[in-house]
Amino acid sequence: MAEGPTIQELMSGFFIEICISLILYGITVAQTYIYYLNYGHEDTRFLRGVVACVMVLETAHTVFTIHMTYFYLITDFGQVGAIGHIIWSAGACVTSGMVIVAFAQGFYVMRIYMLSKRNIALTVLIGFMLLLRISFGLATSALTYRLGTWSVFRAKVGPLFTLSTGLGLSAAVDLLIALTLMYYLRRGRSGFKETDHLIHSLIAYAVNTGAITMLVSITIVLTFVFLKESLLFAGLVQLSSKLYANSFLGTLNARQILRKKINTLNSTELSDRRHIEIFQETSKVVDHDDSMHDISNKSHQIDTPAEEHDVEDGLSGKYPPL
Description:
Keywords: Membrane, Transmembrane, Transmembrane helix. The chain is mostly helical.
């Protein structure tokens, strides 16, 4: 007669992932502090409110994660049968995580809408896929309450379908967002070395953040399907929401770095303390006194995608998102 899984097999990977997720939560707190320190008086109320909601949701998600871990490793320590029970906080983690994903990926969808010059068809496509992803995620959360035990949850077709489809859609949305941002950014290359280097940095950031979250989504599905005697997948679910939150906040906070790079570009390409203003369609070299400057009696314009938007676009203020 085959023996059941040991506590070490069930919980070792899960425990390590929870420890990592707590570290990521600390980074989220630090990033939120940096955001309000640098942009608290510059961005719109809407964007500041979104950041506050993400921070509150991340805190709630972390509390649920700690409760779930405490239940399995302290309250029912040594009881393999009790670990097989799905505690209510497991479903709460999934629900709060889905809302965080909605905020983070929704923000990137809005960036694409602005960068693509309000391409409604593309925005609706990605937005619809995101909506489906959130729906499947919430359905997975509901099934954790209905089925009650991990063995039943992993044996049924319903959870496998909702979880794999939801995470597959999540990976697809991440891929589409990264490819779309890369496409529009590459279209904006001007031929100037410094400007193109800045655009390449933006492309690298977009691709890297999308690749990380996409790989985590795929790994969750694989561990759910093939590692039946481990809660490794559950720990990865907790990591996923933390990655999305930090990706969102990192994008907002990176604007200051982008601004410094633009100022560096000023000092290397221009003189007389001129600066570059990046608008939605083109960038023009202007003087600090707001008058146009003629370089060799010719206007100098750099075609580049505008990832920076005005206050009116509803996303940002003085230092808009990348």
